[in-house]
Amino acid sequence: MGGKIVAKESSRSELMSVDTGVLGIAADQYPPDYFQLLAIERNRSGVSQIEDAVRLQSTALKNLIGTDKKRPAQVILHSLVNAKACLLDQLAREGYKQQLAGSARRDSTSDNQSKRA
User: Fold this and answer.
1) With the CA atoms of 8, 92, 97 and 101 taken in that order, what torsion angle do they form, in degrees rounded to the nearest 10?
2) Which of 4, 100, 5 is nearest to 43 (CA)?
């Protein structure tokens, strides 16, 4: 599972405007991972918290279906479905958290290398 919102038919800026404006995701967290998308903590989120977060974010996005934000809202709703499936499956969730940790290490290494250059 990729774990990041991928723009297929919507532009990155359209998705970002919905993520930051409607879902409250900080611009520096874009694209959000599943935990950021659901506004939940990585290590303290149980089944009911995940389901509640999905329901809350879905409601906010469904309110956009009749607007000019329909396409990005649909893309993000699809990401919510993927997030829920991943985070409710304990094995998939652990693998996902390891993937995020590996990505953070690579980002940190590349930042350090570019600072030295």
Assistant:
1) -80
2) 100
Angle between helices 70-88 and 12-21 (to 10 degrees): 70
- Going by C-alpha positions, the residue among 99, 108, 105 that lies closest to residue 34 is 99
| Rg of the chain in Å (alpha carbons) | 15
Residue 1 lies in a domain: no
Model pLDDT for residues 33-73, shown as the tens digit of each residue: 999 999 999 888 899 999 999 999 999 999 888 888 888 88
CATH code of the domain covering residue 81: 1.10.287
Instruction: Supply the DSSP symbol for 90.
Output: H
pTM of the entire predicted model: 0.75
**Do 86 and 92 meet the contact criterion of CB atoms below 8 Å apart?**
yes
Is 117 a member of any domain? no
How many domains are there within the chain?
Answer: 1
Q: How many CA atoms lie within 13 A of 59 on its CB side?
A: 5
The residue with tokens 């950021």 is 36
